[in-house]
Amino acid sequence: MLALSLGAAWLLLAPLSLWLLFRGRPLERAGAIVTLLLLEAGTIVMGRLTTPHATPDHTVVAHDVAPPASCPERAPTPRSARLGTSLVLTWAARRHECDTAEVAMRSQGRRLLVWLHTGHLAPAGGARRLAYTLPVHVKGHTAAVTVPLPKDAARVPVDGRNGRRIPPPRG
Fold first, then answer.
1. Is the pLDDT of residue 162 over 60?
2. Above 70 in pLDDT, residue 72?
3. d(CA 77, CA 115)
4. Residue 65 located in a structural domain
5. Beta carbons within 10 angstroms of residue 109's beta carbon
6. 3-state DSSP assignment of residue 89
7. How far apart are CA 102 and CA 106, in angstroms?
C-alpha cells in the first residue's frame, strides 16, 4: 500500500513541482525542490525496505543429472606414430570425434610410453610423466594429434596401456 501511495505522489506532485520550479515565485520554487527531494528520499527508503528475497546460490533437483557429453569418452588405440621434432599420433576417428585429446608420456629406457585419451578422462601413467591437452585434427576416417617432444625423449613409441610398439605410418 505504501508503494502505491508513493507512486501516486510521484504522478501528482512531480509534474506540479516541475511547473512551479520553472513558473513559480522564489518561495514556490523552494517548496518544489523540497517536494522533489522528499519524493526521491521516500523512493530510496522504500527500495531499502522492500529488498527482494535472497535467491539460493544453488538449484535443488530431485536427482543428480550428469552434464551431456559433447563427445564420447574413450581411450583410442594409436594406429601409427611418426617421430621427428614432435610426435604425430593417428587413430581411427569415430563419429563426433572430440576436439581435444589428452596425451600423457613417460620415458622408460629407449621406450616412450604414450597414453591417449579423448573426452574427459584423466590420463594414466604414474610418476614423472608429461601430459598435454592438444587439438585433434580429423581428416576422413583418421584423427591425428601432434605432441611436442622434449629433446631427451626416448625414440620408440609404445602404447602405455598394453606395452605394444606403435608402428610408423605406412607409405
1. yes
2. yes
3. 9
4. no
5. 7
6. strand
7. 14
Distance in angstroms (rounded) separating the CA atoms of residues 104 and 96: 22
Question: Which grid coordinates are listed for 152?
Answer: 631427451
Other CB atoms within 10 Å distance of the CB of residue 131: 15
All 3 cell numbers of residue 78? 594409436
Which CATH number characterizes residue 120's domain? 2.60.40
69 occurs within a structural domain: no
pTM above threshold 0.85: no
Q: Taking a C-beta distance cutoff of 8 angstroms, is the pair 135, 118 a contact?
A: no
Render pLDDT for 104-156 as a digit per residue (tens, 0 to 9): 988 888 898 999 998 765 545 454 567 888 898 999 899 999 998 877 777 89
Give the span between the Cα atoms of 165 and 66, in whole angstroms: 36
Beta carbons within 10 angstroms of residue 38's beta carbon: 13
The residue-averaged pLDDT of 70-76 equals 82
What total number of domains does the chain contain?
Answer: 2
Q: Find the domain containing 44 and state its range.
A: 2-49
Is residue 75 situated within a structural domain? no
Residue 131 main-chain phi, psi, to 5 deg: -130, 135
